[in-house]
Amino acid sequence: MSENPELTPAALEELRTALLTRQADLQQEIVNLQRSEQGPVDQPEDAATVDPSDAGDASVDLQDREDTSEALLALQTQLKEVEHALTKFETGTYGICERCGRPIPLARLRVLPEARYDVEYEEDVETGRAPR
């Protein structure tokens, strides 16, 4: 596996710190979203006192829960990518395209420190010309 000459010790520390900060932020966002998804504990209602017009509210609540679940899944996916990048520091493969083995430019890593691929391969993945 080739090394990335742009990744000086200072650059590596900068990127590792950015990843650790992103990891902590994502973990907090996940916790906050899970708390909001649980919502307040409702008191059980007597069936005779439930207003039939509340069916619309129930539909909105269901949509909100689905939106929250989708957001939670997206955050968890992002967290996995960040954690994957952090493990690459340990194996000495951080900053190297997982597909072609070429160095990922420092400018790209500064924008997306969890990047797995160089720009060329990422474009192929996004357009469906290459597998992830």
Describe this structure in words.
The protein has helices spanning 9-38, 55-91, 106-111, 119-126. It is built from 4 helices and no strands. It is flat. The protein has a single domain (1-38, 67-132), classed as Four Helix Bundle (Hemerythrin (Met), subunit A). The chain starts with 8 loop residues before the first helix and ends in a 6-residue tail after the last helix. By secondary structure, the protein is mostly helical. The longest helix has 37 residues, at 55-91.
Which descriptors apply to this entry?
flat; 132 residues; Four Helix Bundle (Hemerythrin (Met), subunit A); 61% helix; mainly alpha; 4 helices
Q: What name is given to the CATH topology?
A: Four Helix Bundle (Hemerythrin (Met), subunit A)
Low-pLDDT regions: none
Query: What is the domain tally?
Result: 1
SS content category: mainly alpha
CATH architecture: Up-down Bundle
The CATH superfamily bears the name DksA, coiled-coil domain
What is the rounded Rg?
Answer: 22 Å
Short description:
By secondary structure, this protein is mostly helical. It has helices at residues 9-38, 55-91, 106-111, 119-126. It is flat and about 60 Å long.
